[in-house]
Amino acid sequence: MPEPITSPRISTADVAKVARLARLSLSDDELDTATGQLAAMLEHFADIDELELDDVDPMTQPYPLQNVFRDDVALPTLDRDEVLAAAPEVAEHRFKVPPIVGLEE
Question: Would 43 be classed as within a structural domain?
Answer without folding.
Answer: yes
